[in-house]
């Protein structure tokens, strides 16, 4: 159902491979370009003219590694850093606001309807999609690293880890959360009772994936702001990035809804109820 439609949005390689190839990069493996060598700052270490010259010589490619410093299709990375930060924060706030709107009034309006009764039981299928995406973090690590914002991006972004390490640890969490959700969902389908000590398995997994989705959302914003490509030979139009960002609140709202038993347990255990 609805959750199955989210596969291309959770697993970028599946979505982008279905798009027409705008630019072939068969020479990537034979050039000195590598994601690991991308400068750890959002401001170009070279002038725009130098970057254009290197691009014309085939030394860098727009949207890949150092080529992410070239003007993006969205134009966001051409703005002064304070304006870049303002745009990114505005996008993040919009995602949060839409998540609250969907989880609250929208879900309440359809809760109990035939649409809700038909689709809601299928939501744990998201676990399989996250599991596949987590595996892709290792099989397509270079592509995921390319859309991971390095420190200094937008003038404020910082993590204590390298982009590659961020790709790996988020992949591990996706694999765990997705597998845990599928365990609970599979048990429900088979009518098998899991040990009570495991707690609400699907709900626990949903909360894990909810928090993870928040953590990785900046990568989707970075892909739009800096035209960062994944796969490395596919150029996504701005509208494609916008659609992906619009699905973030849908995913977050669905996961938050599934996580309610875990959140309720937490409130009880903390004496908040």
What is the radius of gyration computed over CA atoms, rounded to a whole number of angstroms? 20 Å
Mean pLDDT: 85
Low-confidence stretches: 1-44
Work out the helix count: 11
What would you note in describing this structure?
With 273 residues, this protein is mainly alpha-helical. The protein is built from 11 helices and no strands. It has helices spanning 7-10, 12-17, 48-56, 81-110, 114-119, 126-139, 141-146, 163-190, 201-225, 238-258, 260-269. Helix 4 packs antiparallel against helix 9 (201-225) and helix 4 (81-110) packs across helix 10 (238-258). Residues 1-44 have low confidence and may be disordered.
What is the compact description of this entry?
The protein is an all-alpha fold and 273 residues long.
Topology of this structure?
Blueprint: H1 7-10, H2 12-17, H3 48-56, H4 81-110, H5 114-119, H6 126-139, H7 141-146, H8 163-190, H9 201-225, H10 238-258, H11 260-269
Helix pairs in contact: 4-9, 4-10, 6-8, 8-9, 9-10
Descriptive key words:
single chain; 273 residues; mainly alpha; 11 helices; elongated; disordered N terminus
